[in-house]
Specification:
Beta-Lactamase, 43% helix, 13% strand, globular
Length: 567
């Protein structure tokens, strides 16, 4: 394929035009017209330290928003040799993250902060070409106009502000010729995550939250989830808060939203759980989103094209649970269908079976379930035929199974068989900042459902929502918003007057404001991160600020606010 570029450089356009993607061909034409050097890469437009620091300070919002997302992406690519880069809309690299041994190679061609990678300087490349084409692009190694860059396969996607202006590029580079799964989708999703995070910061401002709120929320991203990529990707997901199943983020239908550290911790475990078929036990109060997490794991795994079968153990009479799970043959018991019936495990073959409310499973059935999990085989009731069980098992409960084991209500061996991977979903009252993401999402979703024009949430109503205890968790919040929208009088903004009566007459407010709750949650972590960063760079303020992804002025302000004293 490299011969195509040589032919093009020597003027043989007709041999090339139908054999390379149109954006690459147009880029080659531009490079040839500008006499870009094909054989060498020059050190053009590299910022000196003072200019670089000024650039990083002026790009503080973009870097701070993108940095945890770069870490998020790197974690799911950690098994390969990759470098992730963020540039501004002038082509300057602002931030990089990658495999150390691989970065040692890329530094030799100046893939470092402060270097400009516009197309007229470096030829066809992910950053420069996407800045011109303003569309996601894959740049295979052989298509780079400059030969020194040809050892890289690159994928890049534009980053736009909420008003549609191009503000930067997300680029991922890997070794040319190696196997790369779904990196284009991951790149596009990463850019969408950055865009959405920036938009939500604007939303916080719209709701009259202070910059302190936004800084605190942004800093909590340092504890962001590590997500695994799996084997397949759906390319519609435009959402940073869910699965980000990168094996897929991008649209497994899910309502999971939230950017609190606890939410990201849940997603961290869920995404890592997609790498294997180990059983998963999800625990949490009613309404917290246990089934959503289960579906996210399924939709982010290699089984996502296969069935996702659910069984609510609490909704089936105890004497019918076993037949529902394992199936039965004709005449196996009174009332059985003459033709028999497959059980949920058979229906979930090659897919996932979700056993909801597993704590309500009759004790007599638990032994049979344990045998299925151990032996990986199913026998229908009344039948001796062995059927191989090839279904991933995810169970969920709102009960304390450990306590039930102590009380003799749940088998200890089954408990440990199910709890290979354990996910604890905290109640909404412990991650109240997630309402800043959930409420707008539900409003948009329900307006579309009812065919209503788009609605906003008044600042007063928003503060009212974040101060509720929400004993019914996310489900209660959604039902509350649905009530307000369904009974709205045609106004474009929901207000406190739209709240159901029970939320205005018996509203339990938390003792602290939203701002105080966010600050309390992040202050301790933020102080620890600042001290660690200063230690890592021997107290160099500028270097520590770059390490944290913030400006020096911001770092000084935070040190003063958090009483960080560094010699």
């Amino acid at each position: 394929m490299a011969s195509l570029l040589k032919s093009f450089i020597h003027g043989n356009d007709t041999r090339v035009i139908n054999k390379v993607p149109p954006p690459i061909f147009q880029s080659w034409k531009r490079c040839r017209g500008l006499n870009v050097n094909h054989e060498q890469l020059f050190q053009d437009d590299i910022l000196q330290s003072n200019s670089l620091n000024e650039l990083l300070d002026s790009s503080e919002q973009l870097i701070r928003t993108a940095k945890p997302i770069l870490q998020h992406i790197f974690s799911l690519l950690r098994t390969g040799r990759y470098q992730i880069m963020l540039s501004n809309n002038d082509g300057y690299i602002l931030e990089t993250l990658g495999d150390p041994s691989f970065v040692n190679k890329t530094e030799k061609i100046f893939l470092t902060p402060g270097v400009n990678w516009r197309e007229n300087l470096k030829g066809t490349n992910g950053i420069g070409t996407v800045l011109i084409e303003q569309t996601p692009l894959a740049i295979p190694g052989w298509t780079h106009y400059s030969l020194p860059v040809s050892f890289l396969d690159c994928w890049a996607s534009p980053i736009n502000s909420s008003d549609g202006n191009l503000i930067g590029v997300l680029n991922i580079s890997g070794e040319a010729g190696a196997t790369h799964n779904h990196v284009m989708e991951i790149t596009t999703l990463g850019a969408a995550m950055i865009e959405q995070s920036l938009a939500i910061a604007e939303m916080k401002t719209k709701f009259n939250l202070s910059k302190r709120d936004i800084d605190a929320l942004g800093k909590t991203f340092i504890s962001l989830v590590s997500v695994d990529k799996g084997d397949s990707i759906q390319t519609k997901q435009q959402n940073f808060f869910i699965p980000i199943s990168f094996n897929h983020t991008v649209e497994c239908e899910t309502q999971w939203r939230g950017r609190s550290p606890k939410t990201h911790s849940v997603l961290d475990i869920a995404m890592r759980a997609t790498r294997t078929d180990s059983t998963v036990l999800i625990q949490g109060e009613s309404g917290t989103g246990k089934e959503i997490i289960a579906r996210t794991i399924h939709n982010s795994s290699a089984r996502k094209e296969k069935p996702f079968v659910t069984l609510n153990c609490a909704a089936i009479p105890p004497n019918l649970v076993e037949s529902e799970l394992f199936g039965y043959t004709g005449g196996a018991f009174t009332g059985a269908k003459r033709s028999g019936q497959p059980g949920k495990f058979e229906l979930a073959s090659s897919g996932t079976i979700f056993l909801d409310e597993i704590g309500d499973m009759p004790f007599s059935v638990q032994a049979s379930l344990l045998r299925v999990l151990q032996q990986k085989e199913v026998y229908r009731i009344g039948d001796n035929k062995r059927r191989v069980m090839d279904a991933r098992v995810i169970a969920a409960t709102n009960q304390d199974l450990r306590q039930m084991v102590t009380q003799g209500k749940f088998r200890l061996d089954l408990y440990y068989r199910l709890k290979v991977i354990s996910i604890e979903i905290p109640p909404l009252r412990e991650r109240i900042e997630d309402i800043g993401d959930l409420a707008p999402y539900f409003v948009e979703k329900l307006c579309k459902k009812f065919g209503f024009p788009r609605m906003d949430i008044s600042p007063e109503l928003f503060h009212h929502l974040v101060n509720n205890q929400w004993p019914g968790n996310v489900r209660q919040l959604e039902n509350c918003i649905e009530n307000m929208i369904a009974l709205s009088t045609g106004t474009s903004t929901l207000t406190i007057a739209d709240l159901p009566i029970e939320y205005t007459t018996n509203f339990q407010c938390s003792s602290t404001s939203f701002e105080d709750q966010i600050s309390q949650q992040s202050a301790q972590l933020e102080k620890k991160l600042i001290i660690q960063a200063l230690n890592d760079v021997n107290g160099n303020i500028a270097a520590a600020a770059r390490k944290l992804g913030i400006g020096r002025t911001t770092l000084y302000r935070k040190m003063d606010k958090l009483d960080v004293v560094f010699p």
